[in-house]
Amino acid sequence: DPTRTSDRTVFQMLVNESHITKALTFKEKLESKGKHLDLLSYGSLIEYFGNHGQIGSAILALKECNKLHGSPPGEKNLKQLRIKCRQQGLEEAVNLEKLIGKDPLDWLREGESKLKREYSKKGRSNLHVAANKLLHI
User: CA–CA separation, 112 vs 103, rounded Å?
Assistant: First the structure.
């Protein structure tokens, strides 16, 4: 009798080889037997949909995963979905923050935009003036 691990291996192989219709058929077959995909399998499915720009399918799979497991898959699997939603301005429309939480890289993106000015040539141009004034006190 197949175990959860073997089910995941088969499912992820189908997803990785872009046989998404076969993977979804396999998922339905598992559900008809009373089994469900684990969190890692849902992660690979959501990642596939995100990589191929299928935001609607990714959101549906994400909602199903949250309903079954109570939490979204890892950030690695959600990265492309976040990027595609941000590029198309759909973050509020699909309520992405409520589904998967805040983007852990928001602070980095915000900080980079502020720091770029400080470390540019124009931003550093008057630093030596302040340093020289301190030396002449």
Answer: 15
Half-sphere exposure of residue 11: CA atoms within 13 angstroms, side-chain side: 27
In contact, 11 and 27? CB cutoff 8 Å:
yes
DSSP state of 33: T
What is the distance between the alpha carbons of residues 125 and 55, in angstroms, rounded to a whole number? 45
Q: What does the pLDDT look like over 58-115, one tens digit per residue? A: 999 999 999 999 999 999 999 999 999 999 998 888 888 888 988 888 877 777 666 6
Between CA 26 and CA 10 the distance in angstroms is: 9
CA–CA distance, 31 with 27 (Å, rounded to integer): 6
3-state helix, strand, coil in the chain (%, to 5): 70, 0, 30
For residue 102, what is the DSSP state? S
Query: For residue 46, what are the CA distances in angstroms to 4, 78, 135?
Result: 19, 7, 59
Query: Cα(63)–Cα(66) distance, rounded to whole angstroms?
Result: 5
pTM of the model: 0.76
